[in-house]
Design goal:
By secondary structure, the protein is mainly α. It has 2 domains: about 1-25 and about 50-260 and about 400-415, no CATH class; about 285-390, no CATH class. About 60% of the residues lie in helices and about 0% in strands. It is built from 19 helices and 2 strands. The protein has helices at about 1-25, 50-75, 75-95, 100-110, 120-135, 140-145, 145-155, 165-170, 170-185, 190-195, 200-205, 210-220, 225-230, 235-245, 285-310, 315, 320-330, 340-350, 355-390; strands at about 270-275, 400. Strands 1-2 form a two-stranded antiparallel sheet.
């Protein structure tokens, strides 16, 4: 009953907010000829340092409690109520900031720009979930991240999707991660924060389109559990990699698996590895040829990806305001018709910077994107190559185990297991 009331409460808030947005939203002039309007990056009001330190303590406490509930207590009910707490505190009360998902951009900018003074709180929100993931799996995703928690509440009737589609869509977070790192490293933009689909709900403000995107993700999440976490979240891509090396991780059964198959369809994230019985052992020659072939294909994909990324460096660089301004001034277009464009021209004129200096700076930034395009493309090629490798490797298992990379440690599966903890 309490769980239903919590869901109804969130639905009421969501409905009221959509009504308010429709009532007051005005569409600004588009910035691009395509009609696309770039949403603003929403930032909360500054807080005192004491409250920032409090946030870190709350994060540590939440991570510790959730990890204990998952690893020791194996309590789905406890994880659910921690999710409610995460939505209320890190979501509505803290307005989604500081956010571990967006903090990777701050850390990247600090690494590439020594002049950027990154707050210690942001570093803590970036590192702490990674550390806990290394020891206990993705417990941060289970019940601490407000973006994941709000989706988990709406996962009412999850359905399965094809495994090949799961693999293909699972590549997108790594592409998003690469783009986020590239744009933050060049000081261009924090795209994760700009396009955060749920931040408008937490702050009761945002563009109409962002509310629509967030609402659609929640609606899709009723049937396809946590679509943002599984197929978009760039921080989740990092946690995916680190969780594979976790020292302790949730197990479906607390003792030996009896292969009752009750847990087989319990995971809404398709993160359960099913038993694979060895019928005929593969010949070594066949396995050797496959790995030699993959050893050729993967480096080739990296080179092709890097070359392709470098060819699109100008398209990637045009997002940078200085590159865009320089290009428009050089081509003598009607730049300055929108409020944002007019602001950029005013800021340039007041800086006393010559056009030649602007062109040189834009050329330097574009060159950075050329190098970044090689790295980004190579990274994407590597991701595709490793995905292909994972589809080509057959691991034989005799029981049901969670996939340590994609498992979000939600503990749903443990309720289906009839094996009890030995007292």
């Amino acid at each position: 009953m309490k769980k239903k009331l919590s869901i109804i409460f969130l639905l009421i808030i969501f409905s009221i907010q959509i009504y308010n947005v429709i009532a007051i939203q005005r569409f600004p002039k588009p910035e691009f000829e395509s009609g696309h309007t770039q949403p603003p990056t929403l930032t909360p009001d500054p807080r005192s340092q004491a409250l920032d330190i409090l946030d870190v303590f709350v994060l540590v406490a939440a991570l510790s409690i959730v990890s204990w509930l998952i690893i020791k207590k194996r309590s789905r009910k406890g994880v659910f109520w921690m999710s409610i707490f995460a939505v209320l505190y890190f979501g509505f009360f803290r307005e989604g900031c500081v956010c571990s998902v967006g903090s990777l951009q701050n850390v990247t900018l600090a690494l590439f720009n020594p002049e950027y003074n990154i707050p210690l709180t942001v570093i803590a929100f970036f590192i702490l979930p990674l550390v806990y993931t290394l020891f206990f799996g993705r417990t941060f995703c289970a019940g601490v991240c407000p973006l994941g928690a709000i989706q988990d509440i709406f996962a009412l009737h999850p359905i399965s999707i094809k495994s090949w589609l799961e693999k293909v869509l699972g590549v997108i977070p790594f592409i998003y991660l690469g783009l986020a790192v590239l744009y933050s490293a060049t000081g261009t933009d924090f795209i994760v924060c700009r396009y955060d689909p749920f931040i408008g709900f937490f702050r009761f403000e945002g563009t109409f389109m962002m509310f629509v995107i967030g609402g659609l993700l929640l609606l899709i999440g009723v049937f396809i559990s946590r679509p943002y976490c599984r197929f978009l979240c760039p921080y989740g891509a990092l946690l995916n990699l680190i969780s594979r090396f976790s020292k302790k991780h949730i197990t479906i059964t607390p003792a030996e698996c009896i292969n009752c198959r009750l847990c087989e369809d319990s995971c809404p994230f398709e993160a359960i590895n099913k038993p694979v019985i060895l019928k005929h052992k593969e010949e070594k020659s066949i396995a050797s040829r496959r790995f030699v072939l993959l050893g050729i294909i993967i480096p080739l994909l990296i080179l092709i990806g890097g070359f392709t990324g470098s060819q699109f460096h100008e398209n990637l660089a045009i997002v940078n305001s200085k590159v865009r301004l320089a290009k428009e001034l050089l081509n003598n277009t009607n730049y300055g018709e929108t409020d944002q464009e007019a602001f950029e021209i005013t800021a340039f004129n007041s800086s006393n910077q010559s056009k030649e200096d602007l062109y040189n700076e834009a050329a330097s930034i574009t060159h950075q994107f050329y190098i970044g395009g090689w790295i980004l493309g190579g990274f994407i090629g590597l991701v595709f190559g490793l995905t292909l490798l994972s589809l080509s490797v057959f691991r034989y298992r005799k029981d049901y185990t969670p996939n340590k990379g994609t498992c979000l440690s939600c503990t749903r599966c443990v309720d289906y297991c009839p094996v009890k903890v030995n007292e």
